[in-house]
Amino acid sequence: MTTAEYALEITNLCKAFGGLAVTKNVSLKVRPGERRLMIGPNGAGKTTLFNQITGDMLPNSGQVKLFGRDITRLRPDQRAHCGLSRTYQIITLFTQDTLEHNVTLGLMGLRRERWQPVRSLASYGDLARESRRILAMVGLEDRASHPVSDIAYGEKRRVELAMALAQKPRLLLLDEPLAGLSSSERTTVKALIAAIPRETAVIMIEHDMDTALDLAETVTLLNYGSVIVDGERDAVIADAKTREVYLGN
Ligand SMILES: Nc1ncnc2c1ncn2[C@@H]1O[C@H](COP(=O)(O)OP(=O)(O)O)[C@@H](O)[C@H]1O
Ligand SMILES: [Mg+2]
Questions:
Q1: Spacing, Cα 2 to ligand 2 middle (Å)
Q2: How much distance in Å is there from the Cα of 207 to the middle of ligand 1?
Q3: pLDDT tens by residue, the chain, 249 residues
Q4: Residue 89's pLDDT is what?
Q5: Quick check: 188 and 154 in contact, CB under 8 A?
Q6: Exposed, middle or buried: residue 3 (CB in 10 Å: 0-12, 13-18, 19+)?
Q7: Which of 204, 214, 174 is nearest to 36 (CA)?
Q8: Mutate to test the pocket of ligand 1, among 26, 46, 48, 222 (most ligand atoms within 8 A of CB)
Q9: DSSP conformation class of 40
């Protein structure tokens, strides 16, 4: 593959907080449509790496390319415009307000970042329709007029995922999307993730090695800010270095 054909190409990325190096010379490549699982113990630097991909944090050195374009110094909204999306917990703000209104506000926020702040009345109508479509996508259309305070945690997480997907990203970052869910909610969210179209590459963080393995084609194991093992799922699982991190032997 030439460099322009990768969905994501990270080269020698380094980030430190004060004296603490949290991203240590990380390089990795993700192909278009790939399902990549990023695993590693708590504090390994997984979320910090995501923040540097989205632009929420800037690296001290190194490069991030999205579909061949150097995005290392772009703002988060500029990266979103290049097809990058992540889930943000944006619908938990107005708990007394309806689910539909919250989704509409969330979409307004996302669109304002990506496009023009100038709004016409007709586009609000579009947003309301879009928010209904998103709620239907995750089976919550009948809850649209309920206050968010009535909506279960797992249902909110489903909506956030659907909102990210509504942006039709070419690369979607999911940071522990199954965390805190009941086992039935996990099954539902896993099915949603499994149904993400192939136009979208997915990188999913999980700290529990077994939870999301069945969704992954490739796995990157991060520990103390470094890539320890990286490759096809079965090869990473079988690797002695993976067992060392997870079993301590
Ligand atoms: N904004 C920050 N300022 C200082 N230290 C941070 C900051 N963000 C993360 N860290 C530190 O970086 C390390 C990795 O954190 P994080 O990326 O959240 O790990 P993970 O997501 O793998 O659990 C931790 O030691 C954490 O305390
Ligand atoms: Mg994290």
A1: 31
A2: 14
A3: 666 689 999 999 999 999 999 999 999 999 999 999 999 999 999 999 999 999 999 999 999 999 999 999 999 989 988 999 988 665 455 778 888 888 887 777 766 544 445 556 566 678 888 889 889 988 889 999 999 888 888 888 888 888 888 888 999 999 999 988 999 999 999 999 999 999 999 999 998 888 889 999 999 999 999 999 999 999 999 999 999 998 765
A4: 60
A5: yes
A6: exposed
A7: 204
A8: 48
A9: -
Amino acid type, 122:
A
| Helix or strand holding residue 12 (H, E) | strand 8-17
Name which residue sits closest to atom 24 of ligand 1, judged by CA.
43
Tokens of 91: 């619908």
Please identify, by atom number, the ligand 1 atom nearest to the C-alpha of residue 40: 22
Q: Residue ranges of the domains in the chain?
A: 1-83+169-249, 91-168
In CATH terms, 1-83+169-249 corresponds, of 3.40.50.300, 3.40.50.20, 2.60.40.3080, 3.30.70.2520, to: 3.40.50.300
Going by CA atoms, what residue is nearest to atom 26 of ligand 1? Answer: 43
Considering every ligand atom, which ligand is closest to the CA of 226? 1
